[in-house]
Amino acid sequence: MTGTALILGITGSVGQATAWALKQHGWHLRALHRDPDSVKPTLSGLGDVDWRRGDAMSAADITAAADGCDLLLHAVNPPGYRNWRGLALPMLRNSIAAAKASSATIMLPGNVYNFGPDAWPVVKEDAPQHPISRKGQVRVEMEALLEEAAREGCRSILLRAGDFFGPGAGSSWFDNALVKPGRRLRSVTYPGRYDAGHCWAYLPDLAETFARLADRRDELPAFARFHFGGHYLAPGVEIADAIRRVAGEPQASLKAFPWWMIRALGPFNELFRELVEMRYLWDNSLKLDNSELVAFLGEEPHTPLHQALEQSLAALNCLPERSQTAA
Q: What positions does the domain NAD(P)-binding occupy (predicted)?
């Protein structure tokens, strides 16, 4: 069962990937953006998107754009980890108001910020949420808003996942830390403790999961939350070994992430300060239990790791035959 889906954050990694997946499933796409003309050329492959001009911080803009929609993908995040409380909560409240007005189902990409040590290392959907970061507390409050809205008749689906990677994941750790886009692989920088497990979400698989859940939304409770297992690597540093194998550079060096520098610059740089707060996610094992998702869908969309990494590195021009510059 499909219809019209409003995408908030269509230029972001999850928003764009999910828009493609929904299109493949037969959904009509509508998108809200502050300057649609500036982004239409880069997203022309999506075909006939119904573009609406507006801002996610405006309840009136979202409500007008959502009129007649069956689905609302809320894939907007404050850029660069900045001002989460001042931006993330109001934007979600606006989406909830718009979904109520149009009787649309909200879909929200979630993450693992909600959880603290009492939920690790294997986390189920109903695990206790005692975050140890400010952004984690905001995430807890965002889920509480959806649960409250569900009691008032507003349906929502939350899908939690680990760190993104894949074509289009421009703001990810993979693109900005592990490898250097546009260069043949000479080294891999790993941000975490080598022996701690880490969860990765390949964007095309995550997007396909959102689309399958959207198609079957009427079979779900008013507030449904699932965990996307993705690629869990233990020890986490295995991602570096896999990248080197796929790139054909087994001798590429392994480098530590310069946390000392990020911490030193934190008092002068908001992004660095926020990154330091989230370091614990790289130093502790956290695996998302996807058994409920598999029970509902029958399977989790899953691209083999070597294939997912090959597509990701190719998109970043990091493979020998596609790299644009020499290291």
A: 9-103
In angstroms, the Cα distances linking 197 to 10, 169, 238, 292 are 31, 21, 9, 21
Question: What whole-number distance in Å separates Cα of residue 44 and Cα of residue 34?
Answer: 17
What does the angle CA 71 – CA 76 – CA 80 come to, to the nearest 5 degrees?
A: 170
In 3-state terms, what secondary structure has residue 312? helix
Average pLDDT over residues 121-125: 97
Residue 37: phi and psi, rounded to 5, are -60, -25
3-state secondary structure 2-41: CCEEEEECCCCHHHHHHHHHHHHCCCEEEEEECCHHHHCH
Mean pLDDT of 103-126: 96
* pTM, 2 dp: 0.95
Other beta carbons within 10 angstroms of residue 44's beta carbon come to 9
- Cite the DSSP H helix spans in the chain: 13-24, 36-39, 59-66, 84-102, 134-151, 173, 203-215, 238-247, 259-265, 270-277, 280-283, 291-297, 305-315
Q: How do residues 269-324 score in pLDDT, each as one tens digit?
A: 888 888 899 999 999 999 999 999 999 999 999 999 999 999 999 999 999 764 44
- Is residue 33 in a domain? yes
Q: What is the DSSP string of 100-122?
A: HHHTPEEEEEE-STT--TTT-SE
How far is the C-alpha of 243 from the C-alpha of 199, rounded, in Å? 15
pLDDT in tens, 157-214: 999 999 999 998 878 999 999 999 999 999 999 999 999 999 999 999 999 999 999 9
What CATH number is attached to the domain comprising 9? Answer: 3.40.50.720
Containing domain of residue 174, as a range?
165-198+232-287+301-315
pLDDT at 121 over 80: yes
pLDDT digits (tens, 9 = 90+) for 130-145: 999 999 999 999 999 9
User: In which region does residue 123 sit, left (phi positive, over 0), alpha (psi from -120 to 50) or beta (all else)?
Assistant: beta
250 near 183, Cβ under 8 Å? no
With tokens 């083999």, the residue in question is 304
CB atoms within 10 A of CB 70: 19
